Amino acid sequence: MKFNQKIFESLTRPADTIHESAEKKVEIYFMNETEEGLYANAGKFALWSSDGTSYKVLIQKEYYDYNSISKFYVEEVNFLWADYFKRLGVINKKMFLTFLLPIIIAYIALVVLAFIFFRDHIIWVLVGLIVVVFILNFFQNKIMDKKFSEESTITQTEIKTILGDEIFSTIAKDQEDYHQAKAALPPLDDEDIELDEPRELEEAELEKVETIEQELEQIEETKEDLDE
pLDDT band at residue 116, thresholds of 50, 70 and 90? Predict the structure, then answer.
C-alpha cells in the first residue's frame, strides 16, 4: 500500500538505520533542520511512508532518543507495523472490489437508465442517488474504521508481547510526556495512555487511511488517509 509518497521520494540520502529481512525493509531517517521545521514543529515527530514495497520512517532525533522511545522502533516492532500496513492495504482493496466498485457501477447504470426513462425527473433521481451513495459510503467508512481499529489492537498486542508489559507502558508514558512537553497538551489519565502509532501526514495520500498520528491519534488519521 502506497502512502505519503512525497515524503518517501524525498528521502534519498543514506538511511540512519536499516531493518531488512527477505520480505520487509524499513529505513529510519532522522529529520534534518528543514524537516524539523516542517513536521516536528507541528507536533509530528514520526512519519511513516511507503512506495508499496518498502517503508521509510522520518523521525525527530530528539524524540527518538527521549528515554525509552527508541525501543518502539526496534526491528521487530517496525516489522509488525509493516505487516499492519500491508493488512490495511488488503482490507482497502477488498472493500473497493466488493463494496465501492459495485456502488460506482450501479450508480452509473442507474444514471443512464434515469436519462432514458425518467428524463423529466432526472434532477430528483440524481439527488436521490447521491443521497443513497452518501449513506452507503457512511456505512462503508464505519465498517473500515472497525476493521482498522481491530488491526491496530492486534498489532499493539503483538508489540506488547515482544516488549513486555513494563517496557510497553514505559514507552507509552514517555511518548505522552514528550508530546506534553513539546505541544503543551493537557495531561491524560493513566488509563487513557496508549502507544503512539505510525502517522500518515497527508490525509489525501492513502486509499482510505484516513492512517497514519497527536501520535496516539496517528492511527485515526491513517484511517482517514486511506480514503484517498
Answer: confident
Q: Are 174 and 67 in contact (CB under 8 A)?
A: yes
The full set of domain ranges for the chain reads: 2-225
Instruction: Say if residue 194's pLDDT is above 50.
Output: no
Report pTM: 0.71
Return the axis-axis angle of helices 122-163 and 218-225, rounded to nearest 10°: 140
Secondary structure string (H, E, C) spanning 168-228 = HHHHHHHHHHHHHHHHCCCCCCHHHCCCCCCCCCCCCCCCCECCCCCHHHHHHHHHHHCCC
Assess contact for 179 and 43: CB atoms under 8 A.
Answer: yes
pLDDT score for 196? 54
Helix (H) or strand (E) holding 160: helix 122-163
Give the confidence band of 185 by pLDDT, cuts at 50, 70, 90: very low
